[in-house]
Design brief:
The complex is a heterodimer of chains A (about 700) and B (about 220). Chain A is an alpha/beta fold. Helices cover about 55% and strands about 10% of the residues of chain A. The longest helix of chain B is centred in the first third of the chain and has 21 residues, at about 1-20. The N and C termini of chain B lie far apart (about 35 Å). The chains are: A alpha/beta (about 700), B alpha+beta (about 220). The interface between A and B is medium-sized, with 23 and 23 residues.
Chain lengths: ~700, ~220
């Protein structure tokens, strides 16, 4: 969307209509090179991929060397002892890409030629740097290394400056970069000179040495690099107006000094002293931070509640365990009771069965006695009387006179049946004794069961009580946490804003006091002052606008960063906050707010990587931002890196390879040999034994 | 074999006792050895049923109390209580099978044995299909003497004597067909399949007792 400069100028002019015309305001606010339309967040969708590097030269012992290494997408690694050439390779890459040379004097004497092939999106470039002669010479080709012998370069360079400028123009053109406007004081001039951010500065988002990891501070160049990489609207114009405003303010200050003027707007020393005291007082208050005190009290209360909750939970756990044991015992007792009743019932049935048998046997014996010695008097077949002589024969022969079968004597042996009766009675007695025993056992079990029941009821009541306590404690904790979160939210963000503002006010007042103390009197050229004010107003308006339009992008970025932090093994971070004015990043761990410098050293590299990976992800996912997707880590663990840090880094690199391997190039140089295990592709690892040089 | 033997002997003296207790006096100068007459096999079967199922007997007694206010409630209540207190339904029930018209068991061998030993005399008429009908069971003098001697000397007989006298007191005037009708009111009796054993009704009898006398057995 085209910036509506006229409307912008008209809006700013309203505050200065008494002193300046609209055209004068437009002239003040004017930026060259269409500055207001430079910043667009849309990604050019390009990546920088290094393909091959060649180093050639002669070492101090006169031995020539050629180092030729192909490079690939994803994670690659150089593993070698320190001071064996890893950093030299990375410095050669940097030199080739930026024209910025940082070799040690010794290496400078060795290196004769550097060739680097790289692609930006579909375009292949090869740069060839010749360091042999007195003057630096370089060439750039639009083809691969193999073809440069037969190809004409697209440009030739004599001198590093022209080479550096060309490379800057190339990358700025390819990635839609722009130089963020900046001014700084430079000796011997008292004026501010331009110190625009260059490609060399932006390269710091690619190349990271171990000593750089602490650099993500507010006011640092990296904050500006971050802003440029994210490319929110108005970024260029905000910094451009800031630079112009600083120059105007500087000019105004010098003007006052040189012309010995008194700024009619200048307040008296007494007034200024009073104001300074007030500001200092406010700062002290903030530092004491009643909010912090209130927070501390609530945190103490929270701690106490949490301890109480823990005690109750422990008690609940113990109660559950005891309840389980009792219930298991109770179940066992019930089972025993059931079995005992079963035995008793069975015994009763057996007793009845044997009583029946006794009745049967007794009746049989008795009926036997009754029917014994009865004689057959009548034939059942023909109803005639039976001859008495036949009876006699039957008695003597024991053969039935009717059917001639032998008669069974044993059937009339009552002793057998009496024995059976006796056995049955014994069995009845045994069973009765058993019933007696079992009934006693049952009684004891009932007693025990009653005790268990009472204990169980009591424990269940206790358990319910504990559950209520736990529920109440949890609710109370939740309420207190909400209060605390609200307090911190209100206090935290406001705290830093307030401190920043007060510090700025303090600086301004002290500056004014310094001037007032000199007691100079003269007429002032207010137009210079007004110029600065117009620029500041313009900058403030664009900052507000940028915050509004960039809110969603920043919100998305913060969410992506949090996910990345967790993925990189930093689960304790719960929230990321980015100051929309200066892009300082805050990291929350629960309710604790951290600047980058507050983060432990072992986590700083990963926090930094999380930022750049998030920018890359924003680019890949939403087409916003413009990181070149190349990251070089030189000695990420340092010599004294602890194991936890090394493990975190391993997982980080594996995560990058797995999730970004086809879209990002990460090159790692390390002396930590255990890191090599994460590289499975032999082409992506350059391994040197102990004491061995890379080249 | 043992089981069959015991059953056979018990059947013999039980049927003999039924004939002894439930026959009416008889005199025929042509047959002076015959002293008692019990008409119809059906009657024997039903009386045998009442002896062999104490719980049915108790049920009938309680029904009698419910239907006839002239009956002696106290005596009947005591009888039923005694029977259940002695666990007679568990100890004394002697299962019978159901045949076409109710509880029935073949008596031929038992009667043949008793007849062969001169204890009873059996007579019947045959119809045109040679099926027996109008069966008559006579008690002989020898049989009467033998039973009376046995009642004095043999312990087991005491229970049968008391039971038969009790049945005679309350049910003795009922004909076989009346008893059958009474028994057919029970579902357990009515619903039993042919050739299945008739189930005991001790539980239902206890419930009826509780309903009638407001006490538990």
């Amino acid at each position: 969307m085209i910036f509506k400069f006229d409307e912008f100028a008209k809006y700013i002019h309203k505050s200065f209509s008494k002193d300046l015309s609209l055209d004068e305001v437009k002239e003040i606010l004017h930026l060259e090179d269409d500055g207001y339309n430079k910043s667009i967040p849309d990604s050019p969708q390009k990546r920088l991929l290094l393909n091959r590097i060649i180093l050639q030269g002669t070492k101090f012992d006169g031995v020539d060397f050629t180092y030729d290494k192909s490079l690939f997408s994803g994670v690659s690694m150089w593993v070698a002892d320190n001071f064996k050439g890893k950093s030299t390779v990375f410095k050669a890459i940097r030199f080739a890409l930026t024209g910025n040379e940082k070799f040690t004097p010794l290496i400078k004497t060795w290196l004769k030629r550097i060739v680097l092939q790289f692609t930006i999106h579909d375009a292949t470039y090869t740069v060839e740097l010749n360091l042999a002669g007195a003057q630096f010479r370089a060439s750039i080709f639009d083809c691969a290394i193999e073809a440069i012998a037969a190809a004409d370069p697209i440009h030739l360079f004599r001198g590093k400056d022209s080479y550096a400028k060309y490379m800057q123009d190339l990358f700025f053109e390819e990635f839609d970069y722009y130089p963020i406007k900046r001014v700084q004081a430079s000796q011997p001039s008292i004026n501010l000179s331009d110190a625009d951010l260059t490609w060399k500065t932006y390269y710091t988002s690619i190349y990271h040495q171990s000593k750089d990891y602490g650099d993500l501070e507010i006011g640092n160049q990296h904050s500006m690099v971050f802003q440029m990489l994210l490319g929110l609207e108005y970024t260029y114009s905000i910094h451009a107006l800031d630079a112009k405003a600083k120059k105007a303010e500087r000019e105004w200050t010098i003007n006052i000094e040189q012309n010995k003027v008194v700024d009619p707007d200048l307040e008296s020393l007494a007034t200024l002293s009073e104001k300074l005291s007030m500001v200092k007082g406010e700062l002290d208050k903030l530092h004491q931070n009643s909010n912090k005190q209130a927070t501390a009290v609530i945190q103490e209360s929270l701690k106490h509640l949490s301890e109480l909750l823990e005690i109750n939970r422990k008690a609940q756990f113990e109660t559950d365990a005891m309840l389980y044991r009792l219930q298991t015992t109770a179940t066992s007792i019930e089972r025993q009771k059931e079995n005992t009743r079963e035995v008793i019932n069975q015994s009763f049935k057996e007793i009845q069965k044997h009583k029946r048998l006794i009745t049967e046997y007794q009746e049989y014996i008795d009926s036997g006695i009754f029917f014994n010695n009865l004689e057959v008097t009548e034939c059942p077949h023909c109803d005639h009387e039976v001859d008495k002589s036949k009876l006699k024969i039957e008695k003597e022969s024991n053969i039935c006179m009717l059917c001639d079968h032998e008669m069974d004597e044993t059937a009339e042996d009552t002793s057998v049946w009496q024995e059976r009766i006796d056995e049955a009675q014994q069995e009845i007695f045994r069973r009765q004794t058993l019933i007696g025993n079992k009934e006693q056992i049952l009684k004891d079990l009932e007693k025990e069961s009653t005790i268990q029941s009472t204990d169980i009821s009591s424990l269940e009541a206790k358990k319910i009580g504990l559950e209520v306590n736990i529920r109440e404690s949890s609710q109370n904790i939740k309420l207190v946490e909400e209060d605390l979160a609200q307090l911190i939210q209100e206090g935290g963000a406001k705290y830093f804003e307030a401190v920043e503002k007060l510090l700025q006010d303090k600086i301004q007042i002290e500056h004014k006091m310094a001037i007032a103390e000199k007691m100079v009197v003269s007429q002032a050229d207010m137009s210079i002052k007004r110029r600065g004010e117009v620029l500041r107003n313009g900058q403030a308006l664009l900052l507000r606008k940028r915050s509004e339009v960039g809110l969603k992008i920043l919100t998305d970025l913060k969410e992506i960063m949090l996910v990345q932090l967790h993925a990189l093994g930093l689960p304790s971070y719960t929230k990321v906050q980015i100051n929309p004015k200066n892009f300082v990043i805050y990291y929350y761990q629960g309710h604790v707010l951290n600047n980058f410098s507050d983060i432990s050293e072992g986590e700083q590299l990963r926090a930094k990587l999380a930022l750049y990976l998030s920018l890359i992800q924003l680019d890949l996912g939403q087409g916003l931002g413009r990181h070149p997707r190349l990251i070089i880590l030189d000695s990420p663990t340092k010599e004294e890196g602890d194991q936890h840090f090394v493990d975190g880094l391993k997982n980080t690199l594996l995560h990058i390879e797995k999730n970004f391997g086809t879209q990002v190039q990460v090159i790692v140089g390390t002396a930590k040999r255990e890191l090599q295990t994460i590289i499975s592709d032999p082409e992506k690892i350059e391994y040197r034994e102990i004491g061995e040089f890379v080249f | 074999m043992d089981k069959n033997n015991t059953k056979r002997y018990r059947d013999r003296f039980r049927i003999l006792l039924i004939i002894y207790f439930f026959s009416e006096s008889f005199y025929d100068p042509t047959r002076p050895q015959l002293v008692g007459l019990l008409k119809s096999e059906v009657r024997i079967q039903k009386l045998d049923f009442l002896i062999r199922y104490p719980s049915y007997l108790c049920y009938e007694l309680i029904l009698m109390v419910q239907e006839d206010p002239k009956q002696d409630r106290t005596s009947i209540k005591r009888i039923v209580k005694d029977i259940f207190d002695s666990q007679e339904p568990e100890l004394r029930t002697n299962d019978m099978k159901k045949f076409l018209y109710g509880a029935w068991e073949k008596l031929d061998k038992t009667v043949a044995f008793l007849m062969a030993h001169g204890l009873v005399y059996f007579d019947s008429k045959r119809g045109s299909t040679l099926k027996q009908y109008q069966k008559e069971y006579y008690l002989t003098q020898y049989g009467k003497n033998k039973v009376e001697a046995g009642l004095k000397a043999i312990n087991s007989f005491k229970w049968y004597e008391q039971r038969c006298e009790m049945i005679k007191k309350y049910f003795g005037d009922l004909k076989g067909s009346d008893l059958k009708a009474l028994q057919y009111e029970h579902e357990s009796y009515k619903d039993a399949l042919i050739n299945d054993y008739i189930r005991d009704i001790a539980l239902q009898t206890k419930q009826l007792f509780t309903e009638e006398f407001n006490e538990s057995l």
